[in-house]
Design a protein that fits this description.
The longest helix has 41 residues. It is built from 12 helices and 8 strands. The chain folds into 2 domains: 253 residues, TIM Barrel, CATH 3.20.20.70; 84 residues, Chorismate mutase (Chorismate Mutase Domain, subunit A), CATH 1.20.59. Helices cover 47% and strands 10% of the residues. The relative contact order is 0.10. The protein has an 8-stranded parallel beta barrel with strand order 1-2-3-4-5-6-7-8, surrounded by 5 helices. It is of the alpha/beta class and 363 residues long. The structure holds phosphoenolpyruvate and manganese (II) ion (MN). Manganese (II) ion (MN) binds next to loops.
């Protein structure tokens, strides 16, 4: 059973006036000029409520730029004075937490590399004891829902209630246009488990390149995610980290304008029609399950009959014929060939199992 979470409503701690809530700013703080110039443009975009910048950067190789450290926090304080935007930085250790709290950072975020480590989560949670600060928790690098929910539950049990999940995609070793495969089914499952927990989508780290940002952000909105974390830089071509995926604030403004934000709940007529269609689906699903159960009881009967007559379970010729006929039938009705095959294979596996059970049953 999923333990219940105690999540403070987003509106109770953030001036949020409708989807999408946007968190934006550079991948890394690089100079005072860069953060202030970027923020000065971002503040003109009404959806942008929070300014992000990486101060300590988790880099794969030691010789890469690892962030400007503490001095960048002072630049961020200037951003807050200039613009009034809330500030967020990534923290990966109790030391980072202390520095961030000392410099009036409003929201902390836990990166994909930190969230996988329960020791780090515990230490960060302990450093936050007594601070009622909001936390954004990115998904772990590996596509494992439990690692993500484990970190969320751990923070929640340590008294942190202003929590937000961030979907930034997963490392996955197949060729894909994305830097990190979105695997939408994982954040969707988390949203179903914890419907009160806001979910942001981070198309920058999913896509790895500017061109894919818009369709990814649109999909997030169509899945009713609360908002977006998008990396922006006043001069993306000069960025020291994640250059290919950062966009100018101006381009972010255009991207947000071209998003279609569909309503979560529609008019009465729409809801009535949707309800009707949904109850039709419920009925069909019930029939499907009934039919499968009936099919399995016939299968058992065949199994018993084969046993009495000492006939083998798997009869390849018959199975090949079933596959051919059913695929043809399915395609005629407009079903996708691969889907029919997958479905038949699952049914066949269960059929074999059922007949094996019958064979092995002592008379
Ligand atoms: C980032 O947001 O810049 C970052 C390092 O993100 P992630 O932890 O998702 O890789
Ligand atoms: Mn980045």
């Amino acid at each position: 059973m999923t333990p219940p979470l105690h999540i403070a409503p987003l509106k109770s701690w953030l001036p949020f006036d409708g989807r999408p809530l946007v968190v934006s700013g550079p991948c890394s703080a690089e100079s005072e000029k860069q953060v202030r110039a970027t923020a000065a443009e971002l503040v003109k975009i009404p959806e942008v409520k929070v300014f992000r910048a990486g101060i300590w950067k988790p880099r794969t190789r030691p010789s890469s730029f690892e962030g400007v450290g503490k001095k960048g926090l002072k630049w961020l304080q200037k951003v807050k004075q200039d613009t009034g935007l809330l500030l967020t930085v990534e923290v990966a250790s109790p030391g980072h937490v202390r520095e961030a709290l000392e410099h009036d950072i409003d929201i902390l975020w836990i990166g994909a590399r930190t969230v996988v480590n329960p020791f780090s989560i515990q230490e960060i949670g302990e450093a936050l004891q007594g601070h009622d600060i909001p936390l954004m928790i990115k998904n772990p690098l590996n596509p494992d829902l439990q690692t993500w929910t484990g970190a969320i539950e751990r923070f929640n049990q340590m008294g942190l209630h202003k929590l937000v999940a961030v979907h930034r995609g997963f490392s996955f070793f197949t060729r894909s246009p994305y830097r990190n495969a979105p695997m939408w089914e994982i954040p969707i499952e988390l949203m179903c488990m914890y419907p009160k927990m806001p979910m942001l989508n981070d198309p920058s780290h999913i896509c790895g390149k500017r061109e894919l940002l818009l369709p990814t952000a649109q999909k997030a909105m169509d899945l009713e995610m609360t908002g977006l974390m998008i990396e922006t830089h006043y001069r993306p071509e000069d960025a020291l980290t994640d250059k290919r995926q950062q966009i100018t604030p101006e381009r972010l403004g255009k991207l947000l304008k071209s998003l279609v934000i569909r309503k979560e709940t529609g008019s009465f007529a729409f809801k009535t029609k949707l309800e009707g269609l949904r109850s039709e689906i419920d009925k069909l699903d019930e029939e499907l399950i009934d039919i499968l159960a009936r099919r399995m009881s016939v299968v058992e009967e065949i199994g018993r009959y084969k046993k009495e007559n000492r006939i083998t379970i798997l009869q390849l010729k018959r199975w090949n014929k079933i596959i051919r006929d059913r695929i043809e039938h399915g395609i005629r009705l407009g079903l996708n060939r691969e889907f029919v095959i997958r479905l038949l294979e699952a049914i066949h596996d269960e059929t074999i199992q059922k007949q094996m059970d019958v064979m092995n049953k002592k008379a």
